[in-house]
Design goal:
single chain; UDP N-Acetylglucosamine Acyltransferase, domain 1; 5 helices; 37% helix; 259 residues; five-stranded parallel beta sheet; alpha/beta; 2 domains; six-stranded mixed beta sheet
């Protein structure tokens, strides 16, 4: 009759094999995401992507460190995270929860905090921070739902939720929840719904973004022009021509992302 010690070792071995299989599956998914979303990866073999893409290196190391972290291995998960940061410039805490299909483009300066949660098919560009605020314990980093695209240099801070399919503009600072299928620009970030629900998948169009500051100034200019016209009519004088307000970001031309 098999004793309890043998069964315990067998259970540990099966758990270890299960973690290895999960890591392999997730890495395959990450490589596939890079091939689909990085124009530079078109026609490149998966082995070459696995060998030369820094974002894939960081994710592979994270997948291993996360599995070890879940197995309560001491020290080693953090050592892997530290070595990966030195090699790739990408820092991912081993306790973060990242689903498959994350694509980190270029990746230099990306930081993903301890309690961050990232859903499926998320795209991060260089310089993105999923960080915390203050010194509170517990959940203190963002939750990013599926199919979210986050532009270069964006900072998402605190235990906020970024809704499914949202798009965060480059250099935005987001400290509040973001509705699903919306676009956020500015500092602090302003959610602006664009054409309701947009198509699934990453959106790399950083030109055709709304400009809420220009829109607000345009509304104020229009209001001032109306008031000046009314005053001119009362004073029986010639009204002045209203000032023209031009958005800082042009919205003319073809979508460079191919949309």
């Amino acid at each position: 009759m098999v004793n309890d010690g043998v069964w315990a070792r067998y259970a540990v071995a099966m758990a270890g094999l299960g973690r290895i299989a999960r890591v392999v599956s997730e890495v395959r998914c990450d490589v596939r995401a890079a091939r689909e979303r990085d124009p530079a990866a078109r026609g490149v073999a998966p082995a070459e992507i696995l060998a030369t893409w820094p974002g894939i290196h960081a994710l592979l190391a994270y997948r291993v460190a996360h599995a070890l972290y879940q197995a309560n291995a001491p020290l080693l998960p953090r050592l892997i995270s530290m070595a990966t940061r030195a090699l790739t410039g990408i820092e991912i805490h081993p306790a973060a929860q990242i689903d498959c299909g994350l694509f980190i483009d270029h990746g230099a300066g990306v930081v993903i905090g301890e309690t961050a949660v990232i859903g499926k098919d998320v795209t991060l560009y260089q310089g993105v921070t999923l960080g915390g605020t203050g010194f509170a314990t517990g959940k203190r980093h963002p939750t990013v739902q599926d199919n979210v695209t986050i532009g270069s240099g964006a900072k998402l801070l605190g235990p906020i939720t970024i809704g499914h399919g949202a798009k965060i503009g480059a250099n935005s600072v987001v400290i509040t929840d973001v509705p699903a299928n919306s676009t956020v620009v500015g500092n602090p970030g302003h959610p602006v719904r664009v054409d309701g629900r947009r198509m699934e998948g990453p959106d790399a169009d950083w030109i055709h973004l709304p400009d809420p500051i220009a829109e607000a100034i345009q509304a104020l200019s229009s209001r001032i022009a109306t008031l000046e016209r009314l005053v001119a009519e009362l004073a029986d004088a010639e009204p002045r021509k209203g000032a023209e307000v031009r958005p800082l970001r042009t919205v003319r031309g073809r979508n460079p992302a191919g949309g």
